[in-house]
């Protein structure tokens, strides 16, 4: 239904963001520049909700990141430093 101002009161559809991997069906574990876009500053793998990739691409990314960690191309997740300790 439209109000007097002409705007509809329905739910807004979320804006579509471009998939950062496109239609990729292979993710190379040696491409660290690409993989670094999908890990946090602490080295953790970012979620699909944050990175906007498909479920299949998330699985490919996770496997590639884990392989790159094993080959010492990427860091393992680091724990935060404890506060108040010297």
Terminal residue distance: 63 Å
Shape: flat
Mean pLDDT: 85
* Run of helices and strands: HHH
Task: Give me the count of strands.
Answer: 0
The residue fraction in helices comes out at 25-40%
What is the level-2 CATH architecture name of one domain?
Irregular
The CATH top-level class label of one domain:
Few Secondary Structures
Q: Which oligomeric state applies? A: single chain
Number of H/I helices: 3
GO molecular function: small ribosomal subunit rRNA binding; structural constituent of ribosome
Protein name: Small ribosomal subunit protein bS18
Function: Binds as a heterodimer with protein bS6 to the central domain of the 16S rRNA, where it helps stabilize the platform of the 30S subunit.
Organism: Streptomonospora nanhaiensis
Description:
The chain has 86 residues and is mainly alpha-helical. The radius of gyration is 19 Å and the shape is flat. The chain has a domain of 59 residues: Ribosomal protein S18 (30s Ribosomal Protein S18, Irregular). Helix content is 29%, strand content 0%. Binds as a heterodimer with protein bS6 to the central domain of the 16S rRNA, where it helps stabilize the platform of the 30S subunit.
Summarize the structure.
The protein is an all-alpha fold. It has helices spanning about 30-35, 50, 55-70.
Summary tags:
29% helix, 3 helices, mainly alpha, single chain
Topology diagram in text:
Blueprint: H1 32-36, H2 48-51, H3 55-70
């Amino acid at each position: 239904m439209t109000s007097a101002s002409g705007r509809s009161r329905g739910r807004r559809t979320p804006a579509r963001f471009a998939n950062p991997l496109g239609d990729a069906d292979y993710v190379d574990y040696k491409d660290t520049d690409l993989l670094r876009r999908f890990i946090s500053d602490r080295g953790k793998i970012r979620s699909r909700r944050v990175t906007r990739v498909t479920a299949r691409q998330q699985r490919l990314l996770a496997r590639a990141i884990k392989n790159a960690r094993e080959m010492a191309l990427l860091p393992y997740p680091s724990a935060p430093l404890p506060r108040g300790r010297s």
